[in-house]
Amino acid sequence: xxxxxxxxxxxxxxxxxxxxxxxxxxxxxxxxxxxxxxxxxxxxxxxxxxxxxxxxxxxxxxxxxxxxxxxxxxxxxxxxxxxxxxxxxxxxxxxxxxxxxxxxxxxxxxxxxxxxxxxxxxxxxxxxxxxxxxxxxxxxxxxxxxxxxxxxxxxxxxxxxxxxxxxxxxxxxxxxxxxxxxxxxxxxxxxxxxxxxxxxxxxxxxxxxxxxxxxxxxxxxxxxxxxxxxxxxxxxxxxxxxxxxxxxxxxxxxxxxxxxxxxxxxxxxxxxxxxxxxxxxxxxxxxxxxxxxxxxxxxxxxxxxxxxxxxxxxxxxxxxxxxxxxxxxxxxxxxxxxxxxxxxxxxxxxxxxxxxxxxxxxxxxxxxxxxxxxxxxxxxxxxxxxxxxxxxxxxxxxxxxxxxxxxxx
Amino acid sequence: xxxxxxxxxxxxxxxxxxxxxxxxxxxxxxxxxxxxxxxxxxxxxxxxxxxxxxxxxxxxxxxxxxxxxxxxxxxxxxxxxxxxxxxxxxxxxxxxxxxxxxxxxxxxxxxxxxxxxxxxxxxxxxxxxxxxxxxxxxxxxxxxxxxxxxxxxxxxxxxxxxxxxxxxxxxxxxxxxxxxxxxxxxxxxxxxxxxxxxxxxxxxxxxxxxxxxxxxxxxxxxxxxxxxxxxxxxxxxxxxxxxxxxxxxxxxxxxxxxxxxxxxxxxxxxxxxxxxxxxx
Lengths: 409, 280
Hints:
The complex is a heterodimer.
Chain A: H1 44-64, H2 71-81, H3 89-100, H4 106-119, H5 145-151, H6 156-168, H7 176-187, E1 195-204, E2 208-209, H8 211-220, E3 230-237, E4 240-245, H9 251-267, E5 272-277, E6 281-283, H10 285-288, H11 293-303, H12 313-322, E7 331-335, H13 344-357, E8 360-365, H14 378-383, E9 389-392, H15 396-407
Parallel strand pairs in A: 4-5, 4-7, 7-8, 8-9
Antiparallel strand pairs in A: 1-3, 2-3, 5-6
Chain B: H1 2-7, H2 14-26, E1 30-34, H3 40-51, E2 55-59, H4 66-69, E3 71-73, H5 75-87, H6 93-100, E4 106-108, H7 110-116, E5 121-125, H8 132-144, E6 146-149, E7 153-156, E8 162-167, H9 175-180, E9 182-186, H10 191-201, H11 207-222, H12 231-243, H13 251-256, H14 265-274
Parallel strand pairs in B: 1-8, 1-9, 2-5, 5-8
Antiparallel strand pairs in B: 3-4, 6-7
C-alpha cells in the first residue's frame, strides 16, 4: 500500500464472495462466506472455525494472484487474528499483510485481493491474458520433421562440417530446422563460470594458519600441538546479470539470446540473474530455472509483457540500478542493438553508473558480426565508453566465445 | 503501541504499530524491509527503550560465521586451564574434560547473548549483506530459539527475545526465513507525518522550517535521483540548517547544506541545475 491509508471497510453483513481467481480450482470455502467478524464472540469455537475458513479462502485467492501465501503463513495469520480485533477491517488488513506478504511486489496484489475478497468488489480482468502467445514463431520444437530427415545421412564428416558451418551462420537467417539444431547445441553449451574469492574460509593444505582448528586439535591431544592446520578463501562463482533486449528490432535474436541465458542459469542457478528489457524491465530468472529449454522459453514468453515493442534501455537500466538488483561485483551482460527510443544521454549516465558498480560490463550486439558494422545508433554511441568489452552475438560461435569470456576473468 | 513508541519520539503509522504489537504478542521476529534511512534500525532501538531491555545488535556482512554470530570457545583460556591442571598434577581425565568445556570458557556472541539475556531486543541488521550460509543458521536459531552446542548441550531461551531483522533488499532473502517472520515494508513517510517527525525529533525546529524541509524532501524523492533521501537524511538536513541558525529554507542555504541530504555528486548537480530547491 503506497500511502498507508486504511483499506476498504467490510460490509457488516458480508458481501457475497467474488473470487478473483477463476480457473484456480475450488472457490473460496462454502458456508458463511467471507465474513471475518462472523460470530467471533459468544460461540467462540464456531466463530473461530468461520474465521479460519474465511481466511483460508482469502489465502487461496492470494495464491492465485501470485502471492506466496502458503499454509504456514495462513496459520500465522490465524494466530495473529487472536490478538487483534477480527471485526475491525483495518486490523484484519494489517494482520494479513504482515503474515501473508513476502515482498513489496506482493503489496499491490494483496491490496487488490483484500478489496475484492472482503469488499465484494469485482475483480479486474487479468492483464496477462491477451499477451500470452505473441512469439509462437520463435519457438520451434527441436524434433521437427525436416531436421530428422537430414540427420539420417550416413556421412559423419559431412555432418560435422555442416555443424561447423551452422556455428558461424547468423541465427536470424536460419530455416526452422537449422534453428532447431542451433537451439539443441545451445542447450548443450557448457557455460563455465569465472570464480571469485568469497569471504568464507575452507580448510586447505596451504594458506593462512587456522587458529581455531589448530587449538581445538591441540586440546584434543591434551595440550600438544601436533600439526598446524591451514585455511584458504573459498571460491564461489561470480554472479552474471544478463539483460536481454526483446524489442522489435531484436526480435530475430531474442529467442536465441534467451536460450543462451537458459544455459547460463542452468549451470549456475544461484549466481545468474536474467532480465528482459523492452519498454519495461522484467525479471525472468525464475522462469528460466526450468530445466527443459522449451518449457522455460514458453514460461518466459508468458511472463514478458512487452515483446517486440520499443526499447527504453536508459529508463530500464535506471530501474535496474535503483532497485539494487545485484549489479555490484557482477559481470553485467547487456544484449541489445542500441536502438534507444529514449534519451541517449540518460542511457549514457546509467551506463556510467553501472560501470562503476559492476565488475565488468559486456555489451552483446548481434549486428556487430556483420561486415562493415559501425556503432552509429545513438544509444550504442552513448553506451560504448562505459563498456569493457563489446562483442558480437549473432551466431552459435559468437555465443560460445561469449560463454568463454564469462568463464575467465 | 503507537503511543508507546511516540513516547520515545518514534512516530509509527498504524501498520508499523500493529506489526510491533503482533511481534510482541506472537513472539515472532519482525522482518523490516525498505529503502535505506526509513527508520528500520531506529525502530529496534526504540523498541528496546520501550521495553526497557538491552539492545543486542548483530551487524551482518558477507562471510559472517557461527563463531562470530553464535558462540566461540575461548581457546587460549582453555589451554591455560589445561596447563594449570597439568602443573598441579590433576589426573582425573573425565573431570578435566568436563571443566574444559565449561560455560565459563564459552564466549557468547550476539545470538547466544540474546537468548541468555531476558528480556532483550535482538537486532539482526542488514541481513541481506550476509550470505546464504548465514541465513541457514539464523533460521535455525529463530525458529525455536535454541542453540545446540555439541560440547555443552542445548541452550534455549525460556522467553524468546524480541527480534527485529532488517534488510535493504540488495538481494532476496530466502523465503523460509521470511515465513518465520512478520513481514513489514516501510515506506517513506507521507508529508504531514514527516513534518511531525521533524518537530518531534528536533525541538528547536520551527513549524515553518519543518514544513519547508519536508516539502523539499518530498520533491527530491520524486526527482528520480540515484539515492532519494530517507527520513534520516531529512533529519540531518534540518539539523544542519538549525545549526547554521536558519529560520527558513532559502535556496542559498539549502545549496550549501545539500551534502547532508544528497550523497551523490550527480544528484547534487541535477538538483542544483533543475532548481528543485526554489520556492522552498
